[in-house]
Amino acid sequence: MSKRIEINDLDIYYGDFKAVEGVTVDIEPRAVTAFIGPSGCGKSTVLRSLNRMHEVISGAWVDGEVLLDGANLYGPGVDPVNVRRQIGMVFQRPNPFPTMTIRENVLAGVLLNNRRMSKSDQDDLVERSLRGANLWNEVKDRLGVPGSGLSGGQQQRLCIARAIAVSPDVLLMDEPCSALDPISTLAIEDLIEELKTEYTIVIVTHNMQQASRVSDKTAFFNIAGTGKPGKLIEFDETAKIFSNPTVQATEDYVSGRFG
Ligand SMILES: Nc1ncnc2c1ncn2[C@@H]1O[C@H](COP(=O)(O)OP(=O)(O)OP(=O)(O)O)[C@@H](O)[C@H]1O
Ligand SMILES: [Mg+2]
């Protein structure tokens, strides 16, 4: 289920504006890779380019390669919808579908692809996905109530359940804890730790403690100034990035001297 992503010399544009330049990174399966760096350096932009969500924005495009276990996601004839099914995404603000129940939220993506799933298969999948997201015990007696009625941390775990219900190979998370309290944040971090045994995970975070707690590899991005493209400055084992980085700018950022 877990696959490798190789990014080769990727430039990412919004119309004429080159937001990110020359990114080359190898993202390992069954591991957590953190993207860190100051606001505007392109972390979310790079993340969205990994499942072809970037091009949903009008005028947005990329130049370069993103390989999923060797297959170019931007190759001719590749269906972006299929890419997004293989590479799921969890956003900063929990976004359960407000009119749907907890159960319907978990099944939303699956039923798009497979309308004729039997009731008992659906029940199994709902339980498995909610257990996978560490939410089952809290909601098993109220699967029929609206997902929007859950707490913020529960809603975020519901979104994770929805993302894993379609059996993706990769999970992308853009600041998944930034709207959550510390307890919910730790719950999500524990969950990420468990999920990495099955998935390739990429997480964007502004929280340095979080990056060092949850990730195996860290990519530090930076930007030279307004209007300049963001670049990958350093990519290494998380322990190395936080204790003994090679580049001065990385050192300055992780030690809180800027950003
Ligand atoms: N929809 C868009 N249209 C045009 N430019 C955009 C769009 N989204 C982002 N950008 C620009 O691309 C650059 C990178 O933005 P991005 O959101 O990827 O940064 P980020 O590192 O995720 O920042 P933050 O930490 O604040 O979330 C910025 O200059 C930003 O203004
Ligand atoms: Mg962002």
Automatic annotation (TrEMBL):
All residue ranges annotated as the ABC transporter domain in the record: 5-248
InterPro entries in UniProt: AAA+_ATPase, ABC_transporter-like_ATP-bd, ABC_transporter-like_CS, P-loop_NTPase, PstB-like
Pfam families in the cross-refs: ABC_tran
GO molecular function terms noted in the UniProt entry: ATP binding; ATP hydrolysis activity; phosphate transmembrane transporter activity
PROSITE patterns (alphabetical): ABC_TRANSPORTER_1 (PS00211), ABC_TRANSPORTER_2 (PS50893)
Keywords tagged on the record: ATP-binding, Nucleotide-binding, Translocase, Transport
SMART domains in alphabetical order: AAA
Protein name: Phosphate import ATP-binding protein PstB
